[in-house]
Amino acid sequence: MRLLLVCVALLAETFVPMGPLLERAHDRLRLLYDPPVPAYLALRPRPGARHRLERRLAAASDPASPGYGRWLSAEQVGRLAHPPLADRRRVLAWLRRQPQAEAAADHGDAIKFWAPRSALRTMFPPADSHSYTVPAALRGLVEFIEMRRRPVPRRPKRNVTGDNSTDDRYVGREALVRLYNISSTPASASVAAVEYQSSSGFSNQDVRRLQIWNEQDIHSVNHVVGANSGVDVESELDVQMLEQAGDGVDVWYWNSPYWLYAFAVDFAHAATVPDVISMSWGWAEDRQCDIADCGNLTSAQYVERVNFEYLKLALRGITIVVASGDAGAPGRTSEGCDAARPLNAAFPASSPYVLSVGATYVPLDHSNASYTSPLCQRYGCITSVDEKSVRFDRVGWTAGGGFDRYQNHTPWWQRSAVEAYLGSGVPLPPQFHRSGRAYPDVSALGHSCPTVVGNNIGGVDGTSCSAPLVAGLLATLNAEAQAQGRPRLGFVNPLLYWLQQRCAGCFRDVTDGYNWCTEQQCCDPAFGFSAAPGWDPVSGLGTLNHGLLRDHLLA
Q1: What amino acid positions are annotated as catalytic residues?
Q2: What is the pLDDT of residues 148-164, one digit of tens each?
Q3: Structural domains present in the chain
Protein backbone atom coordinates (compact mmCIF):
# COMPACT_ATOMS: atom_id res chain seq x y z
CA MET A 1 0.00 0.00 0.00
CA ARG A 2 2.82 2.39 0.90
CA LEU A 3 4.54 1.61 -2.44
CA LEU A 4 1.31 2.32 -4.33
CA LEU A 5 0.95 5.70 -2.62
CA VAL A 6 4.55 6.64 -3.49
CA CYS A 7 3.96 5.75 -7.16
CA VAL A 8 0.79 7.82 -7.26
CA ALA A 9 2.63 10.78 -5.73
CA LEU A 10 5.44 10.53 -8.29
CA LEU A 11 2.97 10.39 -11.16
CA ALA A 12 1.19 13.45 -9.81
CA GLU A 13 4.45 15.39 -9.69
CA THR A 14 5.39 14.54 -13.30
CA PHE A 15 1.95 14.88 -14.85
CA VAL A 16 1.64 17.80 -17.32
CA PRO A 17 -1.87 19.01 -18.21
CA MET A 18 -2.71 18.55 -21.89
CA GLY A 19 -4.07 22.11 -22.33
CA PRO A 20 -0.69 23.93 -22.22
CA LEU A 21 0.91 21.22 -24.36
CA LEU A 22 -1.72 21.67 -27.03
CA GLU A 23 -1.36 25.44 -26.87
CA ARG A 24 2.42 25.22 -27.34
CA ALA A 25 1.98 22.80 -30.23
CA HIS A 26 -0.53 25.17 -31.83
CA ASP A 27 1.90 28.09 -31.43
CA ARG A 28 4.68 26.09 -33.09
CA LEU A 29 2.42 25.17 -36.00
CA ARG A 30 1.33 28.80 -36.37
CA LEU A 31 4.95 29.96 -36.47
CA LEU A 32 5.67 27.31 -39.07
CA TYR A 33 2.70 27.90 -41.36
CA ASP A 34 1.77 31.51 -40.53
CA PRO A 35 4.96 33.21 -39.31
CA PRO A 36 5.14 36.92 -38.51
CA VAL A 37 5.97 39.06 -41.54
CA PRO A 38 6.90 42.75 -41.69
CA ALA A 39 4.29 45.42 -42.38
CA TYR A 40 4.99 49.09 -43.09
CA LEU A 41 2.53 51.84 -42.14
CA ALA A 42 3.08 54.98 -44.23
CA LEU A 43 2.13 57.94 -42.02
CA ARG A 44 1.19 61.28 -43.50
CA PRO A 45 4.29 63.52 -43.46
CA ARG A 46 4.37 66.93 -41.82
CA PRO A 47 2.49 69.50 -43.98
CA GLY A 48 4.85 71.37 -46.31
CA ALA A 49 7.66 68.87 -45.74
CA ARG A 50 8.34 68.18 -49.41
CA HIS A 51 8.74 71.87 -50.25
CA ARG A 52 11.19 72.35 -47.37
CA LEU A 53 13.21 69.29 -48.34
CA GLU A 54 13.29 70.29 -52.01
CA ARG A 55 14.69 73.70 -51.12
CA ARG A 56 17.42 72.17 -48.95
CA LEU A 57 18.29 69.58 -51.61
CA ALA A 58 18.70 72.26 -54.29
CA ALA A 59 21.17 74.14 -52.07
CA ALA A 60 23.17 70.99 -51.24
CA SER A 61 23.33 69.56 -54.78
CA ASP A 62 23.86 72.68 -56.92
CA PRO A 63 27.61 72.95 -57.66
CA ALA A 64 27.25 76.74 -57.88
CA SER A 65 25.65 77.00 -54.42
CA PRO A 66 27.68 78.02 -51.33
CA GLY A 67 25.92 75.15 -49.54
CA TYR A 68 27.07 72.51 -52.02
CA GLY A 69 27.82 69.14 -50.42
CA ARG A 70 26.24 69.99 -47.06
CA TRP A 71 24.17 66.83 -46.75
CA LEU A 72 21.89 66.37 -43.75
CA SER A 73 21.86 63.62 -41.16
CA ALA A 74 18.91 61.26 -40.78
CA GLU A 75 17.89 63.13 -37.64
CA GLN A 76 17.94 66.51 -39.42
CA VAL A 77 15.83 65.14 -42.28
CA GLY A 78 13.40 63.68 -39.74
CA ARG A 79 12.88 67.03 -38.05
CA LEU A 80 11.84 68.50 -41.40
CA ALA A 81 9.61 65.61 -42.50
CA HIS A 82 8.10 63.66 -39.61
CA PRO A 83 4.48 64.18 -38.52
CA PRO A 84 3.70 65.43 -35.00
CA LEU A 85 4.56 63.05 -32.15
CA ALA A 86 0.90 62.95 -31.10
CA ASP A 87 -0.07 61.39 -34.45
CA ARG A 88 2.58 58.70 -34.12
CA ARG A 89 1.49 57.92 -30.55
CA ARG A 90 -2.09 57.40 -31.69
CA VAL A 91 -0.95 54.86 -34.31
CA LEU A 92 1.33 53.08 -31.82
CA ALA A 93 -1.48 52.95 -29.25
CA TRP A 94 -3.74 51.31 -31.83
CA LEU A 95 -1.03 48.75 -32.62
CA ARG A 96 -0.61 47.90 -28.94
CA ARG A 97 -4.29 46.92 -28.87
CA GLN A 98 -3.72 44.36 -31.65
CA PRO A 99 -2.88 41.07 -29.89
CA GLN A 100 -0.55 39.66 -32.56
CA ALA A 101 1.27 42.85 -33.61
CA GLU A 102 4.91 42.66 -32.48
CA ALA A 103 8.10 44.71 -32.42
CA ALA A 104 6.59 48.02 -33.57
CA ALA A 105 9.31 50.54 -34.47
CA ASP A 106 8.57 54.26 -34.73
CA HIS A 107 10.49 55.61 -37.74
CA GLY A 108 8.90 59.03 -37.69
CA ASP A 109 6.73 59.06 -40.80
CA ALA A 110 6.65 55.26 -40.98
CA ILE A 111 5.95 52.53 -38.44
CA LYS A 112 7.17 49.02 -39.07
CA PHE A 113 5.81 46.05 -37.14
CA TRP A 114 5.48 42.26 -37.46
CA ALA A 115 2.37 40.08 -37.47
CA PRO A 116 1.16 36.80 -39.02
CA ARG A 117 -0.61 37.21 -42.35
CA SER A 118 -3.83 35.94 -40.82
CA ALA A 119 -3.64 38.71 -38.23
CA LEU A 120 -2.92 41.33 -40.90
CA ARG A 121 -6.07 40.28 -42.74
CA THR A 122 -8.01 40.87 -39.53
CA MET A 123 -6.35 44.20 -38.80
CA PHE A 124 -6.76 45.46 -42.38
CA PRO A 125 -9.77 43.60 -43.82
CA PRO A 126 -9.75 42.99 -47.58
CA ALA A 127 -11.83 45.51 -49.51
CA ASP A 128 -11.61 43.36 -52.65
CA SER A 129 -9.14 40.89 -54.17
CA HIS A 130 -6.50 43.61 -54.65
CA SER A 131 -6.88 46.04 -51.76
CA TYR A 132 -7.55 46.34 -48.04
CA THR A 133 -9.32 48.66 -45.61
CA VAL A 134 -7.54 51.15 -43.37
CA PRO A 135 -9.31 51.05 -39.97
CA ALA A 136 -11.33 54.10 -38.99
CA ALA A 137 -8.96 54.80 -36.07
CA LEU A 138 -6.04 55.25 -38.50
CA ARG A 139 -7.72 57.24 -41.25
CA GLY A 140 -6.17 60.64 -41.68
CA LEU A 141 -2.97 59.33 -40.08
CA VAL A 142 -1.94 56.40 -42.31
CA GLU A 143 -1.81 56.69 -46.11
CA PHE A 144 -1.32 53.01 -46.91
CA ILE A 145 0.27 49.77 -45.66
CA GLU A 146 2.89 47.77 -47.57
CA MET A 147 2.63 44.17 -46.35
CA ARG A 148 2.58 41.85 -49.37
CA ARG A 149 4.48 41.29 -52.56
CA ARG A 150 3.14 40.74 -56.04
CA PRO A 151 5.74 39.38 -58.45
CA VAL A 152 7.46 41.74 -60.87
CA PRO A 153 8.05 39.91 -64.16
CA ARG A 154 11.82 39.75 -64.78
CA ARG A 155 13.43 38.40 -67.92
CA PRO A 156 17.17 37.85 -67.64
CA LYS A 157 18.65 38.15 -71.12
CA ARG A 158 21.37 35.51 -71.23
CA ASN A 159 23.65 35.17 -74.23
CA VAL A 160 21.68 37.60 -76.38
CA THR A 161 23.34 37.60 -79.82
CA GLY A 162 23.18 40.73 -81.90
CA ASP A 163 23.16 41.04 -85.67
CA ASN A 164 26.35 40.66 -87.73
CA SER A 165 27.39 44.26 -87.01
CA THR A 166 27.27 43.88 -83.20
CA ASP A 167 30.27 42.88 -81.08
CA ASP A 168 29.06 40.02 -78.89
CA ARG A 169 32.38 39.58 -77.09
CA TYR A 170 32.56 40.27 -73.37
CA VAL A 171 32.62 43.63 -71.60
CA GLY A 172 35.55 42.66 -69.37
CA ARG A 173 37.27 44.85 -66.79
CA GLU A 174 40.09 45.70 -69.22
CA ALA A 175 37.59 46.76 -71.88
CA LEU A 176 35.82 49.00 -69.34
CA VAL A 177 39.10 50.63 -68.28
CA ARG A 178 39.90 51.37 -71.92
CA LEU A 179 36.44 52.57 -72.91
CA TYR A 180 35.68 54.74 -69.86
CA ASN A 181 39.21 55.90 -69.02
CA ILE A 182 39.03 54.42 -65.53
CA SER A 183 41.82 55.51 -63.19
CA SER A 184 43.05 53.87 -60.00
CA THR A 185 40.57 53.49 -57.15
CA PRO A 186 41.01 54.09 -53.41
CA ALA A 187 39.24 51.29 -51.53
CA SER A 188 37.19 53.49 -49.19
CA ALA A 189 33.81 53.65 -50.87
CA SER A 190 30.64 51.61 -50.51
CA VAL A 191 27.94 50.62 -52.99
CA ALA A 192 24.97 48.22 -52.79
CA ALA A 193 23.07 46.07 -55.24
CA VAL A 194 19.40 46.35 -54.23
CA GLU A 195 17.01 43.50 -54.99
CA TYR A 196 13.33 43.08 -54.22
CA GLN A 197 10.75 40.49 -53.23
CA SER A 198 13.36 38.32 -51.46
CA SER A 199 14.78 37.13 -54.78
CA SER A 200 17.24 34.27 -54.55
CA GLY A 201 20.73 35.74 -54.24
CA PHE A 202 24.36 35.52 -55.36
CA SER A 203 27.41 33.35 -54.72
CA ASN A 204 30.72 34.71 -53.45
CA GLN A 205 32.40 31.83 -55.22
CA ASP A 206 31.06 33.16 -58.52
CA VAL A 207 32.13 36.70 -57.60
CA ARG A 208 35.68 35.52 -56.92
CA ARG A 209 35.78 33.51 -60.16
CA LEU A 210 35.08 36.63 -62.24
CA GLN A 211 37.65 38.58 -60.22
CA ILE A 212 40.26 35.95 -61.06
CA TRP A 213 39.41 36.04 -64.77
CA ASN A 214 39.56 39.87 -64.71
CA GLU A 215 42.86 39.88 -62.73
CA GLN A 216 41.27 41.93 -59.94
CA ASP A 217 41.97 41.79 -56.21
CA ILE A 218 40.18 38.80 -54.72
CA HIS A 219 37.67 39.55 -51.98
CA SER A 220 34.13 38.65 -50.99
CA VAL A 221 30.88 40.54 -50.53
CA ASN A 222 30.48 40.56 -46.75
CA HIS A 223 27.63 43.03 -46.18
CA VAL A 224 24.39 41.16 -46.84
CA VAL A 225 21.01 42.53 -45.71
CA GLY A 226 17.97 40.31 -46.19
CA ALA A 227 17.68 36.95 -47.94
CA ASN A 228 20.55 35.39 -49.86
CA SER A 229 19.52 31.79 -50.50
CA GLY A 230 20.44 30.19 -53.78
CA VAL A 231 21.37 32.24 -56.83
CA ASP A 232 19.55 34.07 -59.60
CA VAL A 233 21.07 35.53 -62.74
CA GLU A 234 20.02 39.13 -62.07
CA SER A 235 21.49 39.23 -58.55
CA GLU A 236 24.73 37.66 -59.81
CA LEU A 237 24.90 40.23 -62.62
CA ASP A 238 24.27 43.19 -60.30
CA VAL A 239 26.90 42.21 -57.75
CA GLN A 240 29.53 41.17 -60.27
CA MET A 241 29.20 44.36 -62.36
CA LEU A 242 29.56 46.48 -59.21
CA GLU A 243 32.73 44.54 -58.41
CA GLN A 244 34.03 44.80 -61.97
CA ALA A 245 33.49 48.58 -62.26
CA GLY A 246 34.31 49.43 -58.65
CA ASP A 247 37.33 47.10 -58.32
CA GLY A 248 38.02 47.17 -54.61
CA VAL A 249 35.09 49.20 -53.28
CA ASP A 250 32.98 47.74 -50.47
CA VAL A 251 30.06 46.03 -52.25
CA TRP A 252 26.83 45.28 -50.36
CA TYR A 253 23.89 43.05 -51.25
CA TRP A 254 20.51 44.26 -49.97
CA ASN A 255 17.39 42.15 -50.58
CA SER A 256 14.06 43.75 -49.62
CA PRO A 257 11.00 41.57 -48.94
CA TYR A 258 8.46 43.76 -50.75
CA TRP A 259 8.57 46.71 -53.09
CA LEU A 260 10.00 50.25 -53.30
CA TYR A 261 8.47 51.89 -50.23
CA ALA A 262 9.41 49.09 -47.83
CA PHE A 263 13.03 49.16 -48.98
CA ALA A 264 13.25 52.94 -48.63
CA VAL A 265 11.99 52.75 -45.04
CA ASP A 266 14.39 49.97 -44.04
CA PHE A 267 17.34 51.67 -45.73
CA ALA A 268 16.59 55.07 -44.21
CA HIS A 269 16.59 53.66 -40.68
CA ALA A 270 19.50 51.23 -40.85
CA ALA A 271 22.40 52.02 -38.54
CA THR A 272 24.96 51.88 -41.37
CA VAL A 273 24.28 52.26 -45.08
CA PRO A 274 26.37 52.41 -48.27
CA ASP A 275 26.92 55.71 -50.06
CA VAL A 276 25.66 54.52 -53.47
CA ILE A 277 22.84 52.09 -54.30
CA SER A 278 22.04 50.42 -57.61
CA MET A 279 18.57 49.16 -58.57
CA SER A 280 17.86 47.07 -61.66
CA TRP A 281 14.11 46.82 -61.07
CA GLY A 282 11.12 48.77 -62.32
CA TRP A 283 7.59 48.70 -63.66
CA ALA A 284 5.24 51.07 -65.48
CA GLU A 285 4.79 54.28 -63.52
CA ASP A 286 1.00 54.17 -63.88
CA ARG A 287 0.81 50.46 -62.93
CA GLN A 288 2.64 50.54 -59.60
CA CYS A 289 -0.42 49.27 -57.76
CA ASP A 290 -0.11 46.04 -59.75
CA ILE A 291 3.04 45.44 -57.69
CA ALA A 292 2.55 47.34 -54.43
CA ASP A 293 -0.05 47.28 -51.65
CA CYS A 294 -1.74 50.57 -52.50
CA GLY A 295 -5.04 50.17 -50.65
CA ASN A 296 -7.15 53.15 -51.67
CA LEU A 297 -4.21 54.96 -53.25
CA THR A 298 -3.70 55.36 -56.98
CA SER A 299 -0.40 54.51 -58.67
CA ALA A 300 0.24 58.27 -58.94
CA GLN A 301 -0.06 58.60 -55.15
CA TYR A 302 2.19 55.61 -54.53
CA VAL A 303 4.80 57.11 -56.88
CA GLU A 304 4.52 60.43 -55.05
CA ARG A 305 5.17 58.79 -51.67
CA VAL A 306 8.13 56.75 -52.92
CA ASN A 307 9.55 59.92 -54.47
CA PHE A 308 9.21 61.59 -51.08
CA GLU A 309 11.28 58.76 -49.55
CA TYR A 310 13.93 59.11 -52.27
CA LEU A 311 14.02 62.87 -51.70
CA LYS A 312 14.88 62.24 -48.05
CA LEU A 313 17.66 59.82 -49.02
CA ALA A 314 19.04 62.24 -51.61
CA LEU A 315 19.22 65.00 -48.99
CA ARG A 316 21.35 62.69 -46.85
CA GLY A 317 23.90 62.40 -49.67
CA ILE A 318 22.87 58.95 -50.91
CA THR A 319 23.36 58.36 -54.66
CA ILE A 320 20.49 56.27 -56.10
CA VAL A 321 21.26 54.70 -59.49
CA VAL A 322 18.41 53.00 -61.40
CA ALA A 323 18.23 51.03 -64.66
CA SER A 324 16.01 52.74 -67.26
CA GLY A 325 14.34 49.50 -68.39
CA ASP A 326 14.73 47.06 -71.27
CA ALA A 327 11.54 47.59 -73.31
CA GLY A 328 12.14 51.02 -74.81
CA ALA A 329 9.80 53.97 -74.46
CA PRO A 330 6.68 51.73 -74.76
CA GLY A 331 7.78 49.65 -71.76
CA ARG A 332 6.84 46.20 -70.54
CA THR A 333 3.12 47.01 -70.45
CA SER A 334 3.11 47.74 -74.21
CA GLU A 335 5.49 45.14 -75.64
CA GLY A 336 3.17 44.60 -78.60
CA CYS A 337 3.01 48.30 -79.58
CA ASP A 338 -0.41 48.97 -78.04
CA ALA A 339 -1.78 52.13 -79.65
CA ALA A 340 -3.70 52.89 -76.45
CA ARG A 341 -0.42 52.85 -74.45
CA PRO A 342 2.32 54.12 -76.78
CA LEU A 343 4.64 55.67 -74.16
CA ASN A 344 4.96 54.33 -70.61
CA ALA A 345 7.55 55.67 -68.23
CA ALA A 346 9.24 53.10 -66.01
CA PHE A 347 9.44 53.74 -62.29
CA PRO A 348 11.66 54.28 -60.31
CA ALA A 349 13.82 55.13 -63.37
CA SER A 350 11.62 58.20 -63.92
CA SER A 351 12.01 59.50 -60.36
CA PRO A 352 13.56 62.99 -60.19
CA TYR A 353 15.75 61.87 -57.27
CA VAL A 354 17.59 59.01 -58.99
CA LEU A 355 20.27 58.82 -61.65
CA SER A 356 18.60 56.93 -64.49
CA VAL A 357 20.89 54.79 -66.68
CA GLY A 358 20.31 53.68 -70.27
CA ALA A 359 22.37 51.19 -72.26
CA THR A 360 24.83 51.03 -75.16
CA TYR A 361 26.59 48.42 -77.26
CA VAL A 362 29.56 48.64 -79.63
CA PRO A 363 29.80 47.41 -83.23
CA LEU A 364 32.21 44.67 -84.17
CA ASP A 365 35.54 45.98 -85.39
CA HIS A 366 38.96 44.47 -86.00
CA SER A 367 41.10 46.82 -83.93
CA ASN A 368 43.67 45.42 -81.55
CA ALA A 369 43.78 45.85 -77.79
CA SER A 370 46.62 44.53 -75.65
CA TYR A 371 44.42 42.68 -73.19
CA THR A 372 46.19 40.36 -70.77
CA SER A 373 43.43 39.13 -68.45
CA PRO A 374 42.37 35.46 -68.68
CA LEU A 375 38.81 36.59 -69.47
CA CYS A 376 39.76 38.63 -72.53
CA GLN A 377 42.49 36.29 -73.73
CA ARG A 378 40.42 33.13 -73.41
CA TYR A 379 36.96 34.37 -74.44
CA GLY A 380 37.55 37.70 -76.18
CA CYS A 381 36.51 41.23 -75.18
CA ILE A 382 35.10 44.19 -77.09
CA THR A 383 37.57 46.58 -78.73
CA SER A 384 35.52 49.36 -80.37
CA VAL A 385 34.90 52.65 -78.57
CA ASP A 386 32.06 53.68 -80.90
CA GLU A 387 29.08 53.27 -78.54
CA LYS A 388 25.55 53.14 -79.91
CA SER A 389 22.21 53.04 -78.12
CA VAL A 390 20.80 49.56 -77.55
CA ARG A 391 17.74 48.71 -79.63
CA PHE A 392 15.79 45.62 -80.62
CA ASP A 393 16.90 45.42 -84.25
CA ARG A 394 20.55 45.28 -83.15
CA VAL A 395 20.62 43.25 -79.91
CA GLY A 396 17.07 41.98 -79.35
CA TRP A 397 15.94 44.50 -76.73
CA THR A 398 15.69 48.27 -76.25
CA ALA A 399 16.88 50.55 -73.46
CA GLY A 400 14.11 52.56 -71.80
CA GLY A 401 13.69 56.32 -71.85
CA GLY A 402 11.16 59.11 -72.15
CA PHE A 403 9.20 61.44 -69.88
CA ASP A 404 7.36 60.70 -66.66
CA ARG A 405 3.59 61.17 -66.34
CA TYR A 406 3.20 62.87 -62.98
CA GLN A 407 5.78 65.61 -62.39
CA ASN A 408 4.37 69.10 -62.98
CA HIS A 409 7.64 70.53 -64.25
CA THR A 410 11.00 69.38 -65.58
CA PRO A 411 13.59 69.38 -62.75
CA TRP A 412 15.67 72.56 -62.65
CA TRP A 413 18.97 70.76 -63.14
CA GLN A 414 18.00 69.25 -66.53
CA ARG A 415 15.61 71.88 -67.85
CA SER A 416 17.97 73.61 -70.30
CA ALA A 417 19.27 70.29 -71.68
CA VAL A 418 15.74 68.95 -72.21
CA GLU A 419 14.50 72.19 -73.77
CA ALA A 420 17.46 72.14 -76.17
CA TYR A 421 16.48 68.64 -77.30
CA LEU A 422 12.79 69.50 -77.69
CA GLY A 423 13.69 72.60 -79.70
CA SER A 424 16.29 70.94 -81.90
CA GLY A 425 13.91 69.95 -84.67
CA VAL A 426 14.31 66.22 -84.04
CA PRO A 427 11.06 64.33 -84.84
CA LEU A 428 8.97 63.79 -81.71
CA PRO A 429 6.07 61.45 -80.92
CA PRO A 430 2.66 63.15 -81.07
CA GLN A 431 1.75 62.68 -77.41
CA PHE A 432 3.99 62.77 -74.33
CA HIS A 433 4.32 64.74 -71.10
CA ARG A 434 6.72 67.48 -72.32
CA SER A 435 7.02 69.11 -68.89
CA GLY A 436 7.80 65.89 -67.03
CA ARG A 437 11.03 64.51 -65.64
CA ALA A 438 13.03 63.27 -68.65
CA TYR A 439 15.20 60.16 -68.52
CA PRO A 440 17.72 58.52 -68.77
CA ASP A 441 20.47 60.80 -67.48
CA VAL A 442 23.49 58.78 -68.64
CA SER A 443 24.22 55.40 -70.25
CA ALA A 444 26.73 52.57 -70.07
CA LEU A 445 27.41 49.29 -71.84
CA GLY A 446 24.59 46.79 -71.47
CA HIS A 447 25.39 44.03 -73.98
CA SER A 448 27.33 40.81 -73.36
CA CYS A 449 28.25 41.51 -69.74
CA PRO A 450 30.32 38.60 -68.35
CA THR A 451 28.45 36.91 -65.52
CA VAL A 452 29.48 33.77 -63.64
CA VAL A 453 26.66 31.52 -62.41
CA GLY A 454 27.64 28.20 -60.85
CA ASN A 455 31.24 28.66 -62.03
CA ASN A 456 30.02 28.91 -65.65
CA ILE A 457 30.46 32.19 -67.48
CA GLY A 458 27.99 33.66 -69.96
CA GLY A 459 26.98 36.98 -71.42
CA VAL A 460 23.98 38.77 -69.87
CA ASP A 461 22.26 41.83 -71.35
CA GLY A 462 20.16 44.65 -69.98
CA THR A 463 20.22 48.00 -68.27
CA SER A 464 20.63 45.64 -65.29
CA CYS A 465 24.26 45.61 -66.40
CA SER A 466 24.51 49.32 -67.20
CA ALA A 467 23.19 50.61 -63.85
CA PRO A 468 25.65 48.74 -61.59
CA LEU A 469 28.52 49.69 -63.92
CA VAL A 470 27.69 53.38 -63.45
CA ALA A 471 27.09 52.89 -59.71
CA GLY A 472 30.50 51.25 -59.35
CA LEU A 473 32.21 54.10 -61.21
CA LEU A 474 30.44 56.72 -59.07
CA ALA A 475 31.49 54.84 -55.93
CA THR A 476 35.12 55.17 -57.01
CA LEU A 477 34.67 58.90 -57.60
CA ASN A 478 33.18 59.13 -54.10
CA ALA A 479 36.29 57.44 -52.76
CA GLU A 480 38.53 59.88 -54.60
CA ALA A 481 36.60 62.89 -53.27
CA GLN A 482 36.48 61.67 -49.68
CA ALA A 483 40.17 60.78 -49.74
CA GLN A 484 40.84 64.49 -50.31
CA GLY A 485 38.45 65.62 -47.59
CA ARG A 486 35.68 66.61 -49.97
CA PRO A 487 31.99 65.75 -49.57
CA ARG A 488 30.64 62.65 -51.26
CA LEU A 489 28.81 63.15 -54.54
CA GLY A 490 25.39 62.37 -53.09
CA PHE A 491 22.53 63.49 -55.35
CA VAL A 492 24.77 63.67 -58.40
CA ASN A 493 22.33 64.67 -61.16
CA PRO A 494 22.81 68.48 -60.92
CA LEU A 495 26.58 68.02 -60.89
CA LEU A 496 26.61 65.85 -64.03
CA TYR A 497 24.39 68.21 -66.03
CA TRP A 498 26.52 71.14 -64.83
CA LEU A 499 29.73 69.38 -65.89
CA GLN A 500 28.31 68.52 -69.30
CA GLN A 501 28.26 72.27 -70.04
CA ARG A 502 31.83 72.80 -68.83
CA CYS A 503 33.79 69.65 -69.69
CA ALA A 504 33.57 68.72 -73.34
CA GLY A 505 35.20 65.33 -72.90
CA CYS A 506 33.55 64.22 -69.65
CA PHE A 507 30.81 62.41 -71.59
CA ARG A 508 30.82 60.44 -74.82
CA ASP A 509 27.79 61.74 -76.70
CA VAL A 510 25.83 58.81 -78.17
CA THR A 511 23.94 60.16 -81.18
CA ASP A 512 22.99 56.89 -82.91
CA GLY A 513 19.78 55.16 -81.86
CA TYR A 514 16.08 55.30 -81.06
CA ASN A 515 13.82 53.71 -78.46
CA TRP A 516 10.47 53.03 -80.18
CA CYS A 517 11.19 49.28 -79.98
CA THR A 518 10.61 46.87 -77.07
CA GLU A 519 11.96 43.40 -76.20
CA GLN A 520 9.69 41.83 -78.80
CA GLN A 521 9.54 44.10 -81.84
CA CYS A 522 9.96 47.58 -83.23
CA CYS A 523 6.96 49.89 -83.29
CA ASP A 524 6.71 53.07 -85.36
CA PRO A 525 8.27 56.42 -84.35
CA ALA A 526 5.08 57.48 -82.54
CA PHE A 527 6.14 55.05 -79.81
CA GLY A 528 9.45 56.66 -78.88
CA PHE A 529 12.30 59.08 -79.41
CA SER A 530 15.44 59.48 -81.51
CA ALA A 531 18.96 60.14 -80.29
CA ALA A 532 20.47 63.55 -81.06
CA PRO A 533 23.56 65.62 -80.20
CA GLY A 534 23.59 66.57 -76.51
CA TRP A 535 21.11 65.15 -74.01
CA ASP A 536 18.33 62.98 -75.44
CA PRO A 537 15.74 60.55 -73.96
CA VAL A 538 17.56 57.59 -75.56
CA SER A 539 21.05 57.74 -74.02
CA GLY A 540 20.88 60.81 -71.77
CA LEU A 541 24.09 62.85 -71.59
CA GLY A 542 26.02 59.85 -72.93
CA THR A 543 28.57 57.62 -71.23
CA LEU A 544 31.09 58.64 -68.58
CA ASN A 545 34.77 59.49 -69.04
CA HIS A 546 35.81 58.48 -65.54
CA GLY A 547 39.29 60.00 -65.71
CA LEU A 548 38.17 63.44 -66.89
CA LEU A 549 35.29 63.51 -64.41
CA ARG A 550 37.77 62.70 -61.66
CA ASP A 551 40.11 65.50 -62.77
CA HIS A 552 37.33 68.09 -62.82
CA LEU A 553 35.88 66.99 -59.49
CA LEU A 554 39.23 67.19 -57.76
CA ALA A 555 40.58 70.31 -59.48
Answers
A1: 234, 238, 464
A2: 878 776 666 666 666 68
A3: 157-188+258-462+474-554 (3.40.50.200)
